[in-house]
Amino acid sequence: MMRYTLNKMLLRLQNRYNYDVRYQQDLLQTDLAAFLKFMAFQSMSSHQGNLAAAPLYAARLRAIIFEDCGPCTQLVVNMALEAGVSAAMLRAIIEHDLHQLPEDIALVVQFTELVLAHQPQADLLREKIMALWGSKGLMAIGFAISSYRVYPALKYALGYGKTCSRIQLNDASLVPNRAAVVAAEAQNVE
Questions:
Q1: Angle CA 117–102–70, to nearest 5
Q2: How does pLDDT run across 14-63, given as a tens digit for each residue?
Q3: Which residues on neighbouring strands pair with residue 169, listed in sequence order?
């Protein structure tokens, strides 16, 4: 009965976001204890702290894009739209067009890229993050960066991973910008 109820929940997610939940269903059917641990992990990945949707989704999106999973990126884009992040802002985040982003969102995008690449320049940006959102905001961004990497990694490990594909954003079809982003970030930090 528990598996049936949990599968219904997964099917609602699939229908709501047009997202393939087969890897989660595989976890559920193979090992209920493992699935329940995965579900417990969801509380970390959904943590928002004191952040508004835009900086939170900037970190989540860049983390997903860094790990190169098209379906996961599409899911996060759909969730960000649902949370009220504008399509124009999402496009700039996906395309890594920092000039089209408000300064605070560009900061989160740069910080995320540098953290993911383990670049020391992230230390300089961390101070700016702290000045804007404090320790709680930094922790929420840290949770977003670290937890959103898990989904593509798990999908690839289980054989459900897909390479980066075009992302639908309303009527536009976008290719996430990953090329040379980290190197550029490291050079552009003041």
A1: 50
A2: 999 999 999 999 999 999 999 999 999 999 999 999 999 999 999 999 99
A3: 172
